[in-house]
C-alpha cells in the first residue's frame, strides 16, 4: 500500500515537472515571437527612414535638372520665334535697291512703311511715294494695308513753274505739304484710277526678308515681290 502511494506521488511530480517545462517553453516561444515582430517593425522603420532620406537628398538634383530643361526649351522657343516670326523690328530702317535703271528706297519705322521711287519716270526732282501700314503675313513675310500714293516735287530741281502745273491739276492731286522747297501732293481717287486702274495698291507690296543674320537682328536682303516696278521684283539692301 505504501509502495502504491509512493508511486502515485512520483507520477504526480513528473506530471507537474512536464507541465512546468511546457509552460516555460511556451513562454520562451511567445517571447521570441514578440522579439521577432519588434525586429521586423524596426527594420521597416529603418528602411522608410533611409528611403525618405535618399528621396530628400535626390529632390534638389531633380529640380535642377527639370529647371535646366525648361530653360533650354524656353530659349529654343524664343530663338525660333525671333527667327521666323515676322517682327516689324527685323525690317526696320532704310533699304535701297535698283532695277531697270530706277532707284528705290524703303523706310520702315514700327508699323509705318514708306516706299519711294526716286526720280520717277526719269524726271529728276520728282519722286513717287507710297505710304502704308505693315502687316505680318508668314515666316519673315510682310504685307501692307491702307496704302496711299503721293508725288514729291523738288522746287530747285524742277522749277517753280513746273511744280505749280501739278497744283493746277486739281482732279489728279491735292496739296498736302508745301514749304517752298518741297511740295507733297496726294493722288485723288480719280488720280489713282487714272494711273493704276482698278488695282488695289496694297497688293503692290509684299516683302520677304532674306539672308537672316542674328548679329544684325534681321537680314541683309529684303525682296519686293512686284512685277509692276520690275520684272521678278526688286532686292533691297539694308543701309548701314
Automatic annotation (TrEMBL):
Transmembrane parts of this sequence: 61-82
Disordered, as annotated region: 1-41
Top-level taxonomic group: Bacteria
Record keywords, A-Z: Membrane, Transmembrane, Transmembrane helix
Biased composition (Polar residues): 13-32
Basic and acidic residues: compositionally biased ranges: 1-10
The protein's name: Uncharacterized protein
Amino acid at each position: 500500500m505504501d509502495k502504491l502511494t509512493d508511486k502515485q506521488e512520483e507520477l504526480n511530480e513528473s506530471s507537474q515537472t512536464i507541465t512546468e517545462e511546457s509552460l516555460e517553453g511556451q513562454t520562451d516561444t511567445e517571447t521570441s515571437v514578440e522579439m521577432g515582430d519588434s525586429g521586423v517593425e524596426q527594420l521597416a522603420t529603418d528602411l522608410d527612414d533611409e528611403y525618405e532620406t535618399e528621396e530628400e537628398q535626390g529632390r534638389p538634383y531633380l529640380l535642377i535638372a527639370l529647371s535646366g530643361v525648361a530653360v533650354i526649351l524656353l530659349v529654343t522657343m524664343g530663338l525660333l520665334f525671333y527667327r521666323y516670326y515676322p517682327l516689324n523690328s527685323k525690317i526696320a530702317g532704310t533699304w535701297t535697291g535698283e532695277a531697270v535703271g530706277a532707284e528705290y528706297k524703303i523706310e520702315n519705322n514700327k508699323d509705318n512703311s514708306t516706299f519711294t521711287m526716286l526720280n520717277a519716270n526719269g524726271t529728276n526732282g520728282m519722286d513717287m511715294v507710297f505710304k502704308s501700314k505693315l502687316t505680318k503675313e508668314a515666316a519673315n513675310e510682310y504685307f501692307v494695308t491702307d496704302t496711299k500714293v503721293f508725288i514729291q516735287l523738288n522746287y530747285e530741281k524742277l522749277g517753280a513753274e513746273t511744280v505749280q502745273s501739278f497744283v493746277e491739276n486739281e482732279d489728279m492731286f491735292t496739296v498736302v505739304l508745301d514749304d517752298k522747297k518741297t511740295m507733297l501732293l496726294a493722288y485723288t481717287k480719280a488720280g489713282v484710277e487714272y494711273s493704276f486702274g482698278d488695282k488695289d495698291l496694297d497688293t503692290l507690296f509684299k516683302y520677304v526678308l532674306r539672308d537672316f543674320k542674328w548679329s544684325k537682328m534681321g537680314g541683309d536682303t529684303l525682296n519686293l515681290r512686284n512685277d509692276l516696278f520690275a520684272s521678278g521684283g526688286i532686292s533691297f539692301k539694308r543701309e548701314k
